[in-house]
Amino acid sequence: MAEHAHGDHGHHELPFWQKYVFSTDHKVIGIQYAVTALFFLLFGFCLMMMMRWQLAYPGQPMPWIGTLFSAVNMPEGIMVPEFYNQLGAMHGTIMVFLGVVPLAVGGFGNYVLPLQIGAPDMAFPKLNMASYWVFYVGGVIMLASFFVPEGAAQSGWTSYPPLAVIAPTGQTWWLWGMVALITSSLLGSVNFIVTTVQMRAEGLSFFRLPFFVWAQFVTAFLLLLAFPPLEAAGVMQLMDRIAGTSFFMPSGLVVTGQALDVSGGGSPLLWQHLFWFLAHPEVYVLILPAMGIVGEIVANNTRRPLWGYRTLVYSIVFLGFMSFIVWAHHMFMTGMGTTISTFFQATTMIISIPSVIILTAFALSLHGGSIRFTVPMLFCLAFIPMFAIGGLTGLPLGLTASDLHLHDTYYVIGHFHYVVAPGTIFALFAGIYYWFPKATGRMMNDALGKLHFWTSLIFMNGVFMPMMFVGMAGVSRRLYDQTQYAYGAQVQGLTAMSSWSAWLLGLAQIFFIVNFFWSMRKGKKVESDNPWQATTLEWATPTPPPHGNFKDTPRVCRGPYEYSVPGASSDFIPQHASDNGQVDQPESEPAPTPADDD
Amino acid sequence: MAESAEEIRKHVRVYILVFAALAVLTVVTVGVSYLKIESVAATVLIALFIASIKGGLVAGYFMHLVSEKQIIFWVLALTVVFFAALMLLPSVTEFSGVGELEGQV
Amino acid sequence: MSVEEIPHTVEPHPITGVYNGKFGIWLFLASEVMLFGALFSTLVLLRVGAPSWPQGSELLNVPLATLNTFVLIASSVTMVMSWASLKMDNFGRFKLYLGLTVLLAFVFLVIKYFEYTHKFHLGIFPSTSTFYATYFTMTGLHGLHVVGGIIVNLYLLFPGSKLWHTAPEQFANRIECAGLYWHFVDLVWIFLFPILYLL
To answer: What is the ipTM of this complex?
Structure first.
């Protein structure tokens, strides 16, 4: 899409399906990933908006929308519990594995990383294409699972056995979908690591890499080494479901008065361990790329170097490393015993240190800068306190004593959504506003962007802040109707407030959707290849970058964030500017006027 | 990369030797298992020890790890650390008392 | 874009000293270590937690598995020999050795097939007990890796080998990467064999 502007670079024209569908160009693949992921984000969000009706008005028919569904799922517009469970499980799965990660890693990583390191493409372009299409197949399997008998997976996004093993067919589809998604991210992560190590431009040492590249690099290692145990666990759960094995099925299990006919001897806890061995690093897969994006945009819009670049890099590496040994803090309630709980409690407290360092460094970067309040910067400025709320509310969950009360309540939901929704997703929005001009040659509309930002900020907090209180009141996270309990009925008003905020948040996204498509065709054209006056290499390419990216392979002479260098002729010095600090680049600066495309 | 044909010929001799060693060690593994050693720990340790030597030979010579570049070792070292974390998993779960829970059912 | 434009596809990176493919395949193997690691970890956990656990040698066919071990080791040798033949510029011998590798891989699968069907005839399935669950799952997943190796090697033996005439260095690299994978499959079996069959 929006890439029809490079007929004049001497490449013979590829047929449409090779250029846009089965493309090996990292930029096209990045855009494919991003668009698919945005679709899934919207879809997952719609699932949640439907659940919010049941939560706000339990047992009441859903107006208009309720009539669209079959009598099995919503008789007379009233959502049945089984359907509610499907929506919940699939909301989590879709948002994490088909929305945020593909957008942050598959989308931004693919598009930006090779540009930022001055590479012509990823190291294995065909593998990159395969990675996208395997991801796509996984997504289709997940969507199709809604239409199998008894519907999609309904055991939560964590799919804990024994429940998940005895659940209807949809769970098997979920597992096959996960196998595809894991394979896809495995292919992607190998590609990212090799590209980063082997294909950096001349002079681009590791400590001259933009922070975003570091974030993606660490993320790729997490994906590479943490996902396979879940794949193994997925295979075992498939065996449990299809071949009737008992990896996760204990002996003597009784379901609705009937003893289950399994050999037994398995361990349900084993699944939890294997699942969280992936899923905790996965949390950092969700957050690290977001931090990378924020780093880029903060430096660019404060016109100052990032505060403590090396500290940031060491912190993010340490964060990645530690994320492998905190997994059991999701399992304090399984009765692990105090020794093990204390160990994981300690590692959990330790892992909060680098997160705090990173946030502090971002906040300190603002100090003394001449901040440009552009739309991407607004989202980043909101990211910092929102992620801080998410992080700080995590501490009581990491301490065993307070976790006993808060475990599996809406407090947990509020906590991790603060990390991922106004945290990561805000950073992803920032990234879209920031790199949109590079990908399309047009700026996104500023007024619509600001409207989108302010409404999203208000309603995000409206959704998640009440959940903290609902959770502290004791309402369990997967409850279908909290008014059945006196303690739940007390806080029903707050739950309704969350719901209304969620629907308004949905409306607020219309600003973004309109802006996205309108700007693609009618947005203000960029005047130079570097509209934000940024230092990193992706802005040294023609706009939009042609196949093969750079006209001349860039040579890097300096660090990533040389803003406001005393004595320099302008307030930024691009990484590829030669040693005398000359900003204008004789060989790569005169922008080729892109062929008109509308 | 620029290994001469002469060096490759030397390699080939090593491959044959490694093949012989692997074959002998396989026989030893099976042989030891027929000895019926009393101690379970000893049986497991011996079997894993022999398997590790065989694995080492395959990785070292067939996969050329003996003369591999540093970066590969860094990747493997990292994997070993996380592999060790993964191997902690049974002990973590054991402490959690799965056994007792099952006993009660 | 043609593959040649991507740096270090063939010639090693000056600092890391490896070409892209080799680095990539090692990363892939690292993730495979974690995949099989999780299964080994599971086996240990279930075994330690179980009230009783059968002796593998009493239930499984040790002679057949020993034979299979030899087959797989032999195929590893022929694999590495095929690479060495390329390095010595002997394309004919390369084809012979790689063909042998594929053949041995098929022999391995056929023996495995007899083992499996024999169990099924006796009415033994993965659902019979947790021991058989681990046995079938681990050997099954390993078997899938063997199948994957056969597909890759067959590709490199027939359509893929044309590359030798245009880019011999790159083709030798591909064989080396395929070999690394194949040796890893062998290596996994070296651990599976004593753990499942003998302990």
So the answer is: 0.94
